[in-house]
Amino acid sequence: MKIYGNDKNLEFIRKMKQNGHLPHACLFYGEHGSGRKTLANYFAMTVLCTEQNAPCGVCRNCQKILRGVHPDLIPVEHSGKKQGFSVDTVREVCRDAIVAPNDSDRKIYLFSDCDAIGIPAQNTLLKLTEEPPEHVLLLFTAVSKSTFLETMLSRMAQIAVCPCKPEECREALLSHGCTPEEAQSAVQSTGGRNIGFALRWTEDTALQETIRQTAALTSAVAQRNQYEILRILSEFEKDRSRTEEFLHLLMLQFRDACALRSGSSFLTGCDRRSAELLAQMLTASRAVRLCEAVQKASEALHANVSIKLALASLGGSLLLY
Ligand SMILES: [Zn+2]
Question: What is the model's pTM?
């Protein structure tokens, strides 16, 4: 299992196993596509591996995990209205957790993409997280720690999944069957810090277009081109999830402009050139106001305000900044 850009996390996981200090619950958090689930699988492999130098990748347990057929690594299925985890699903896990493992000395439950896990489900899970049977390990993945109740967090080891380097992203894309040209374009267009996102870019023309529009809007704001700002925003009036992604990417652009202004080169957006252009035009307080305007529009969309209204209000703020 090749994992990019997380050497310190891998070392931390291996050390926990070597020292016999494995937690009973662990959260992997970071943005979509950053490799949270891959890292969780690496953790499971390290825990269940029977060799000295875990994870060896060749013992029976490692092989079964790599093939996705280990009976003691149990992916919990999403359920409920928002595709989080329903209280019933969690109760089922709590009942099943008492039963001894099949093949190994641990039973690992993987709750992936927990972003929509509700408070009732977490409360139901609390006792198992606080006092699990000796053989139980609970793994969670989410975009943000803030998804979880403080009482849950206090019982979990927490691992922030790190972005990779553009060279690593390119290498990963090649190993997934991309041509060198495709890999190069994907890294250039996405910033090359998130392998899952770059892979999606290679097959999702709507995402390619959204990224282009995000860069164009950043430039238009820098140039105070009112017509262009309103024209780009008007293209996002139909599709809610696409608009949400657009706003997320726009926020990263504006944050990058703030970062560049304060002399940081740690960027997270897709288009450095337009962020640099904007950084030259902004004062620090204006940069913050731009971020706040995008945040407000995102919150309005989450609260089911009409897309048109949310974007009209955002357009007004972007013209005023
Ligand atoms: Zn092994």
Answer: 0.86
